[in-house]
Design brief:
Elements lengths: L1 H4 L6 E5 L2 H16 L4 H4 L7 E6 L4 H9 L7 E4 L12 H10 L3 E8 L11 H11 L2 E5 L24 E5 L11 E5 L4 H4 L6 H4 L22 H12 L2 H24 L2 E3 L7 E6 L9 H15 L5 E5 L2 E7 L7 H13 L2
Parallel strand pairs: 2-3, 2-4, 4-5, 5-6
Antiparallel strand pairs: 1-7, 6-7, 8-9, 9-11, 10-11
Cofactor: pyridoxal 5'-phosphate
Organism: Archangium lansingense
Family: Belongs to the group II decarboxylase family.
């Protein structure tokens, strides 16, 4: 997986149970590498308060992780996003300055490759440039979208991911594996031991003699199932083309769905999809704008209760949107047309 992303020789990682655990693991490694003090043994008060720069659209587990590490709410410094909910690279300098003015030591930037709400892909190369300039850890939350690297048609969306210090990639999303199988990948493989090490990197200068197979030294879990077996068996038996074709077909299908929403006349598209996450809302004639948010809530409840379709909802720009993740490889254009017709009947 590290090789597919373009990470260099010497990279490596570990499998863990879900994106939340994966992102926490990566941030713990970032803390050991960049804090400048031994927070593992001394705690968060052993040095200046830390923070990470994070796009406003990032998954909630990042804020949860920094709170678990004892950094408090200001452990996350938000970075504005643009109209497509992508991190604005030009806003990073001011976010960095704001964190320092607040008395915080920034140690990392988190970028998204397939954000949870809309599936947005941040400009990873630009973030990598910023991190290199300021000696910050560069982490990519690619839990959902890192699989784009498998697709020749959509690989460009993760350009720059090969420059990351750490990447989280969920195989149980676009690689069709059973949950949970999350890879936490590190540009320097020994960093995976540092996340839970008893000493910081500056104490042993990156020298590591521990075996890669000592998984309990590198993950939150002690006892866990052999999740690698499922992924390895599929890759060794089927190769990567099946998964590459699935990613490409799913992204294509989502784009066709977005085009039908735009041309429908009674649906509104939140943003053109970067991947397989599509946010939209039903806007039938005769419904006042002030009632559209409540309508989306009722529509979702109606469809989920009926059992025919499953939708979630999200809030973007202060408005409620329906959100679908086109991820089942058996989903067709006809299925998505049926979804729209079911929403029309449910009004």
């Amino acid at each position: 997986m590290a090789g597919v992303l373009g990470l260099p020789e010497g990279s490596g990682g570990v499998l863990t149970s879900g994106g939340s655990a994966g992102n926490l693991t990566a941030l713990l490694a970032a803390r050991q590498a960049k804090a400048g003090f031994d927070a593992w043994n001394g705690g968060p008060t052993a040095g200046p308060p830390l923070t990470v720069l994070v796009p406003e659209s990032t998954h909630y587990c990042i804020a949860r992780s920094v709170r678990m590490m004892g950094w408090g709410s200001e452990g996350v410094t938000p970075v504005p996003v643009d109209a497509r909910y992508r991190l604005r690279p030009e806003a990073l300098e001011e976010a960095l300055a704001a964190a320092k003015r607040a008395g915080r030591r920034p140690i990392a930037v988190v970028a998204s490759a397939g954000s949870t709400a809309t599936g947005a892909f941040d400009a990873l190369d630009a973030v990598a440039d910023f991190c290199a300039k300021h000696d910050l850890w560069f982490h990519v939350d690619g839990a959902h979208g890192a699989s784009a690297a498998l697709s020749p048609r959509y690989r460009h969306q993760v350009k720059g991911i090969e420059r990351a210090d750490s990447v989280v990639w969920d195989a149980h999303k676009l690689m069709m594996m059973p949950a949970l199988i999350t890879a936490v990948l590190f540009r320097e493989s020994h960093r995976s031991f540092e996340a839970f090490a008893q000493e910081a990197s500056y104490l042993f200068n990156g020298q590591d003699t521990r075996r890669w197979s000592d998984v309990a030294l590198r993950t939150l879990e002690c006892t866990k199932e052999m999740m690698a077996l499922k992924l390895y068996t599929c890759l060794s038996t089927l190769g990567t083309k099946l998964f590459a074709d699935s990613v490409t077909d799913t992204f294509d299908l989502s784009r066709r769905f977005a085009e039908r929403l735009q041309s429908s006349g009674d649906f509104e598209l939140a943003v053109s999809p970067d991947c397989n996450i599509v946010c939209f809302r039903h806007t039938p004639q005769g419904i006042p704008t002030s009632e559209l948010d409540a309508l989306q809530v009722r529509l979702r409840e109606s469809l989920v209760t009926s059992g025919d379709f499953y939708l979630v909802q999200t809030t973007l720009g202060g408005r409620v949107w329906l959100r679908t993740t086109v991820i089942n490889p058996l989903t067709t254009d006809e299925d998505l047309d049926a979804l729209l017709n079911a929403l029309r009947r449910a009004v």
